[in-house]
Design goal:
With about 180 residues, the protein is of the alpha+beta class. It is about 35% helix and about 25% strand. The chain contains five helices and eight strands; from the N terminus they run H-E-E-E-E-H-E-H-E-H-E-E-H.
């Protein structure tokens, strides 16, 4: 009986170790992945050596406007194009929050000659045109979208290019509007 007991314990131990080993082989660690929604990831870079310069641009009626007309006012310029999906998305973000920042003058400057009618119908913000490419040239714009944040004293606070998240855009506008 003693020998049978030892054999039984050995057999039970062998089965236990075999089963445990098989479970470990087949068991996978739970895959945990943290991902922010892709549309909310900023992909901006600083535009270097950007200083305030006066530029001219047209409104949708073809009337000429100058940046200097909004001197002594915080200003945000967005250079965008309907052909660039990132810049259209940033334009829509600015459009959704422009009423929140009544003390900022917004210039949404289209680097193309036209804005598609369906996009125009979606927007509440005014669209301007850089048909002579004066603004893009004077501010050294080589990538769209490009955002320039100008303080009341006409100093450039920030100049960025690339896709920006809603949070980053709002943070820059809060600083510009002195909402802190």
């Amino acid at each position: 009986i003693f020998i049978l007991s030892i054999l039984f314990v050995a057999l039970a131990g062998g089965v236990y170790f075999y089963a445990n080993n098989e479970l470990k082989k087949n068991a996978k660690a739970p895959e945990m992945e943290f991902k922010l929604p892709e549309e909310e990831l900023s992909n901006t870079k600083d535009l270097e050596n950007i200083t305030y310069v006066d530029i001219s641009f047209e409104n949708s009626d073809g009337n000429l406007n100058k940046l200097s007309e909004s001197k002594d006012m915080a200003t945000m310029i967005l250079f965008w194009s309907p052909d660039n999906q990132d810049s259209v998305e940033v334009l829509k973000k600015v459009d959704s929050m422009n009423e929140k920042y009544e003390n900022i003058k917004f210039y949404m400057i289209n680097t193309s000659d036209t804005t598609p009618k369906e996009l125009e119908d979606e927007l509440t913000i005014d669209i301007y045109y850089d048909k002579l490419k004066e603004g893009a040239s004077k501010f050294y714009i080589t990538e769209l979208p490009s955002m320039i944040y100008i303080q009341k004293n006409n100093e450039v606070l920030h100049a960025k290019s690339g896709f920006t998240s809603t949070d980053a855009l709002e943070a820059n506008l809060d600083i510009l509007a002195e909402n802190f």
